Amino acid sequence: MTTATPKNYADEYRDPAHARAELARIARLAATLGATRDKPISIMEICGGHTHTIFRHGLDRLIDQGIEFVHGPGCPVCVLPQARIDECIEIASRPGVVLATFGDAMRVPGTKGSLLVAKAKGADVRIVYSPLDALALARKMPEREVVFFALGFETTMPATALTLLQAEREGIKNFSLFCNHITVPQPLRVLLQDPMMQIHGFVGPGHVSMVIGLEPYEFIAEQFRRPLVVAGFEPVDLLQSVAMVLTQLVEGRAEIENQYARVVRKAGNPQALAAIDAVFEPRASFEWRGLGEIEWSGMKIRGRYAAFDAEQKFGVGYGGTRAATAPELADCRCGEVVKGAMKPPDCPLFGTVCRPETPVGALMVSSEGSCAAYWQYAGRRVATAEASV
């Protein structure tokens, strides 16, 4: 296993000269592999943050060198199924309840509308910037039940866990979590088991890996013989990571490598992992938008903290009565886009009725969604070009 040599300053990862050098290296490696626009090397970037970097800096145009980016299920808001949004609305609509949520989740559609619609109808839904903000609301309003809509991958789990532990220490009884935390490795296994998915390699998520380290990805190399390179978020980070994936393919290797060595450690963050383990345990199954039920892919609150578990407190979701799973909205292709089977412009709603100001699907709602990224940085030129044909 190898790692990239860390640079001293982040500015170097935005330097045009370094970018040109990496682009030249990618071109040489792609040529060695015989990659062409018609027969490209497909690399899945898992993280929504990487998707935005790719489009913001025009890296998607590497297709001209035979490299195709496939956008993976790396946006936690985007992979929430409609049923979980419906359950969240049910909690928020109960008398005496304040629901605290990140702003990205406000407009995600369920079958009964969104949290924004629920708020307009009278539900007390408030935007917060951290779980600690939600806990502060509980302190200020002891007569109300404050529920934090806890979502995100391993990146946000430690903050949620530490907030629950703080609530326990303070003896705050009117605070709970509606837990929708999910993990990265399990959906990748599902994608790799799909014979229709032709992915040659992966660019791994930097922030998640900062917490969990490298070991959880080993099965990708060992069982499925695909390289994965954990990457940072600057343009040169992404280019360097692509070059590292291509180098492995040229050399016939399949390993887990760490381009983001200035932040990510092989063992991850022991303190963060300890907090996660203290509060959460894996669910036997959890539903993902576009991927269905995936074993051991979600987290739930351990039994000793049941008093802080909104599922148990309110009898909803996996802790009680689950909302029915519903098909995607008519003509919405979020499911196919989430699993990399379709590009955003291939959805019949993209750029027409589904735009950031009038989003239909979760991938256009979330700031990390691939549809939003594609529209903001690249999709307008595609939509405009198609409209003129």
What is the overall silhouette? globular
- Note the beta-strand portion: 5-15%
Any low-confidence stretches, pLDDT <50, length ≥5?
A: 385-389
Total domain count: 3
> Remind me, CATH topology of the largest domain?
Rossmann fold
In sequence order, what are the helices and strands, one letter per element?
HEHEHEHEHEHEHEHHEHEHEEEEHHHH
The mean pLDDT is: 90
Q: What's the Cα radius of gyration?
A: 21 Å
Discrete helix count: 15
Give the distance, in angstroms, between the N- and C-terminal Cα atoms.
49 Å
Q: Output the CATH class name of the largest domain.
A: Alpha Beta
Strand arrangement, major sheet: 2-1-7-8-9
Q: Helicity level, as a percent range?
A: 25-40%
* Corresponding CATH superfamily of the largest domain: HypD, alpha/beta domain 2
β-strand number: 13
- Secondary-structure content class: alpha/beta
User: What can be said about the biggest beta sheet?
Assistant: 5 strands, parallel
Write the CATH architecture name of the largest domain. Answer: 3-Layer(aba) Sandwich
Question: Nutshell version of this structure?
Answer:
This protein is α/β, with parallel strands linked by helices and 389 residues long.
Can you walk through the features of this model?
By secondary structure, this protein is an alpha/beta fold. It folds into three domains: 10-72 and 214-258, Rossmann fold; 82-183 and 268-319, HypD, alpha/beta domain 2 (Rossmann fold); 334-388, no CATH class. Helix content is 38%, strand content 15%. The chain has 15 helices and 13 strands. The strands form four sheets. Strands 2-1-7-8-9 form a five-stranded parallel β-sheet. Strand 3, helix 4 and strand 4 (124-127) form a beta-alpha-beta unit. Helix 6 crosses helix 11. It is globular, with a radius of gyration of 21 Å.
